[in-house]
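so my prof wants the structure for this chain in the tokens format not the other one, which i didnt know existed until like an hour ago. anyway here's the sequence
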Amino acid sequence: MSKKVLITGASGMVGHYLVEKCIDREYQVRATDLRYNEVFDKYSADTFEFVNADLRNFNECKEVVKNVDVVFNVAGVKGSPRRAIERPNEFFTPLLQFNTNMMEASRLEEVEWYVYTSSNGVYAPAERMREDDVWKSFPSENDRFAGWAKRMGELQADCYRVHYGQENISIVRPANIFGKGDNFGEGSMVIPSIIKRICDGENPLVCWGDGTPIRDFIHASDVADGLLMVYDKKITEPINIGSGKGFTIKQLVETVVDVYGEDIPVEWDITKPNGDPVRLMDTTKSNGYGFYPKVSLRDGISEVMEFYSNEK
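here's what i got, hopefully its the right format
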């Protein structure tokens, strides 16, 4: 029989790719979010169901998990480091509610398998962020509130293992995610922010800091593949999903400008903060399970730029 899967945050970047991949597997998909994504129009009602649900409400979570075999909890709050510092409760409280409500509702409904999407924000700044090092340190001050909220979701999974003997929860920690359908509004992340400002005609392009911080970027489609991998292989240890390759912000900006195809001058405002010097995922474990990203940074940027140009 076809698996019945629930995908939360389904209208988001990772969510809509995951829906497509699950439909391709001939799963029965129930998708939930606060908003409907028009890309879902192509799916048949025989295999796809969309439910508008607010995961901050426990009763709605209990309803949406009924008769489901597998839950992919991809719901989250996406925003820039600046937004996380200045308006932290836009991250902290909703994330705690999403995580706690969905995992508990899934336990009560005896869901077969649960995949929890954590974050690289659970890590302290490090040359390489290794899975086993998380609880030896604290999240970065630049990602303190969202990082701790995601950690609590991971701790809840461990709590269920100790209390109930549950060994049916996978934990995925993605690197910096980008892709079609990203947030290009206020408080957006670095890739959509740069693409928007270039496409909207900002000249010169003014970027914060000196361009030296190193980041690990991964396309949303690859994250969806990673989520399916941990389910397929029933992996219960936390797994990093990233490229394992570091790009400086300067290299990132140069790539976006090159893809755009015009010689746009770039100025660096060194009076503004850089953020953590290095946030780079160690991908030894995910590689050991056979996971390698398919979408390059340049190809992904090209796709996102085309998406934004068509949507604006």
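also thought this was worth mentioning. DSSP finds ten helices and 15 strands in the chain.
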